[in-house]
Amino acid sequence: MILNRSVQSNTHSFRPDIQGLRAIAVLSVILFHLDFSFFEGGFIGVDIFFAISGFLMAQVISRDLQSGNFSFSSFYMRRIRRILPALYTTLIFSIIASWFVLFPKNFEDFTDVLAGSTLFLSNAILMNQSSGYFAETLANHPLLHMWSLSVEEQFYLFFPLLFLGLWRFSVVLQLIVLLLLSAASLVLAEYYFSISPSATFFHLPGRVFEFLIGVMAFLSKDVVASRLNRSQLIALSSLGLILILGSILLFKESTPVPSTWILIPLSGCFLVLSCEIDKDWFNPVLSNKCLVFLGGISFSLYLIHQPILGLARYQGVESFYLLSGLMLFSVPLAYGQARFIENTCRNVDLVSGKVLLSVLFMLTSLFLGLAALSNQNKGIPERFNGLTRLAVETAAGSPVRERCSTDGVNYVQPEEACWFQPSQKNWVVFGDSHSVELAYAFKDAAIARNHGVWQLSFSGCSIAFGKSLSDPCNRWTADVFNALQKNRAEILGVVISMSLQSGLHGRHEDVYPGIPNKISKEKTELHWKRFRKLVNSILDLGLPVIWVRQAPELDDTINSKIRQVTAENDSITGVSRHWWEERRHFSSAKLMKDPLFSKIVIIDPADTFCSLEMCYAIRNGVTYYRDRGHMSVSGGRILAEEAIQKFLNAK
Asked: Which of 242, 185, 233, 191 is nearest to 211 (CA)?
């Protein structure tokens, strides 16, 4: 047998620099989830974890093979002891909190992922619940982070077989095979990212190369150590750290992952992992006591942080400082879980395998039973009183939001977008994410008149002409106009709906009750000109235009508003009418002076959603919104009926 050179060394030595690398990975993920502006690339912390996992799994199996003690049962039992006790503890507390906090649809989604987490399939379930990891619908999901754990567990299922198959060969041949497998996984990720970025992101095949980079780092470390001196090893390890930190700081949400771009931080991981300097001296930055401590509790910290963050945001907590405080509070919680749950259950003298498996089996049965009950009863609405349930029902968003709305990551051509009753003359609902619920509501009003609806929604995109050709919004707008040109004989009219105020002046959440003024006058004027050109271009196609102006924004989350309902047909206020008129003063003044807008039908939600003094989140028992700014389908139905009637009266 030709043994690995790496196996001949101490394969189980403690690496404080790896603990430091774990700490950087978990901190980057937490800061990313906090929306910390300087850590927009913090999501690559998960990719770092995958590489570390590959390294450590190769180390564990090599140690056992060298000693002649390897068995699949012992390997998987160690994985169970390492992962499931802390995971299940986190899930138990998440269930308790979510039972009282999450409204029915969200609770049903939560319990679906709960079941997936016990079956190592949460990545597939989360993919089906959204258009991607960065989708708005997943922002407050308490179990969003479980996808990566399922991917890791799936890797553990086949990796021992792979490593055992390569064991008898030389290190060089092992590295060649692993390099080829990594290349195949990367090519697969690159190819399928353009076809299905969400599936590529969430599923194992496009992630295999990330684990294998860690495995190759393990197989290479003795060769690296034998050919380089301490100074060179320190330099390479430091270069690796720079590549990792640079990627965290410079990558954006739009950076395609997994793809060749992720090779930059993973190359850094390879350098850090393979540069084992000696048993007493490691990378001084990664080996400092603070990072080593955080690395030691990184698994529990990763598990705990998202349920706390997601449920806090779901309750309406938006302050960065308060959310950061909750993340600081999660550190002692993670320490407690790591010490009393993780370490205890890994000790075979304290917890026998039989007892552990029995408890885990019982909990798994309870989790799956709760998920089945929740699915059968649509999120168990009986957890709330009747008034709350009614308010929640009317706060519903479009049930086809993920399928019928595109974005820059999951691009859908206009011709492939949702057509409701397409054999009839069609209304086109065109806009950003604010048009999604309106389109679904428009469908009901249109079909009642034997009309159809063509939904053309691009989430997160300010629909306007005149931007760079590489801008996805500009591409979408151009593709839409080509589609409108081809199909204009079947089109009754185009309904425009978008978050215009954010494009003109910036978002309001962090300055309310102030009036946002975050964008320069020059850019505000330019954005208005682009919007005006959009309207004019549709008219030039000979198509009537209905502009549904932006609904008044809320001063708090809709979940917080729903919890204020105390009586049947209750009305819960949002912002004052004065504040909203000040917020949109620029656009109101523009349209009053511009004769172009006399040629279109304008629907103003404020006329319906507001009195002279106040705008309402909930009025007469009907919830107008699904979140802090987007209308619900119930709110959209009121406006859709008004829009069609006003259009027909104007003809």
From this structure: 185
